[in-house]
């Protein structure tokens, strides 16, 4: 088995989105990836890393990740303390949660995310500007609709469970139950395992074949 390679990448910019969530923009360093893949990232002097779906597009001249701090975590508090000019360790990109370029042009897509599980969809939308998609984002509060201005307003649905300031008050499962799909829609699910299991069941009951459902479990 080929050993995964780690390199140092300098932080170019840090964008704070909420009290606990931020985007790190890193120098590219020739890292090749396909939209939807993930990397492992960690502080430069530590021994621990965590997996992050790449937030930026393959054509960007930088690499971005979206990070939510876990207060008792090993990696995210250390990453939160870093600023532009600091470095992180990054490994080569891997993963199969991707879209075939030929398929992207002719199909309808549903993206369902919880929290920072929106990361690969941000990369998809940037990589395929003409993509026919609906993005349903499950969050607690409307302020967690991370950089929603990057998406077409008619294609992004913020489902808020703890306030009524989003586009839909309730969970993504409630929205999907009230908005059934065409059964030939390609469905990509990314986020916590409970959300993915529940959404998977709803989609199958609506007639979506399992071969048209793709998943990436965050936690």
Residue runs with pLDDT of under 50 for 5 or more positions? none
Overall mean pLDDT score?
Answer: 96
What is the general shape? globular
Q: Which structural class best describes the helix and strand composition?
A: alpha/beta
Considering the protein shown, what is the CATH homologous superfamily of the largest domain?
Nucleotide-binding domain of ferredoxin-NADP reductase (FNR) module
Strand and helix layout:
Elements: E1 6-16, E2 21-27, E3 38-42, E4 50-53, E5 62-68, H1 76-81, E6 87-91, H2 101-104, E7 108-114, H3 119-127, E8 132-139, E9 156-160, E10 168-169, H4 172-178, E11 186-191, H5 193-205, E12 213-217
Helix pairs in contact: 4-5
Describe the structure.
The protein is an alpha/beta fold and 219 residues long. It is 18% helix and 33% strand. It contains 5 helices and 12 strands. Strands 4-3-6-1-2-5 form a 6-stranded antiparallel sheet. α3 links the parallel β7 and β8. α4 runs parallel beside α5. It is globular and about 50 Å long. The two termini are 26 Å apart. The relative contact order is 0.15. The model has no long low-confidence stretch (mean pLDDT 96).
């Amino acid at each position: 088995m080929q050993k995964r390679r780690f390199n140092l990448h300098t932080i170019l910019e840090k964008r704070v989105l909420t009290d606990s969530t931020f985007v790190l923009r890193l120098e590219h360093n020739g890292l090749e990836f396909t939209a939807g893949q993930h990397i492992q990232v960690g502080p430069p002097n530590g021994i621990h890393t965590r997996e992050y779906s790449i937030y930026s597009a393959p054509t960007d001249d930088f690499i971005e990740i979206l990070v939510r701090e876990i207060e008792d975590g090993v990696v995210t508090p250390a990453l939160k303390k870093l600023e532009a000019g600091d470095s992180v360790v990054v490994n080569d990109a891997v993963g199969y949660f991707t879209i075939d370029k030929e398929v992207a042009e002719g199909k309808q897509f549903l993206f369902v995310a919880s929290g920072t599980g929106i990361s690969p969809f941000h990369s998809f939308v940037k990589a395929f500007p003409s993509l026919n998609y609906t993005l349903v984002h499950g969050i607690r509060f409307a302020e967690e609709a991370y950089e929603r201005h990057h998406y077409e307003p008619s294609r992004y649905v913020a489902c808020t469970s703890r306030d009524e300031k989003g586009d839909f008050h309730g969970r993504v499962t409630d929205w999907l139950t009230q908005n059934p799909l065409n059964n030939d829609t390609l469905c990509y699910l990314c986020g916590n395992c409970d959300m993915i299991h529940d959404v998977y069941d709803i989609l199958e009951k609506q007639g979506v074949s399992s071969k048209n459902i793709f998943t990436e479990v965050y936690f």
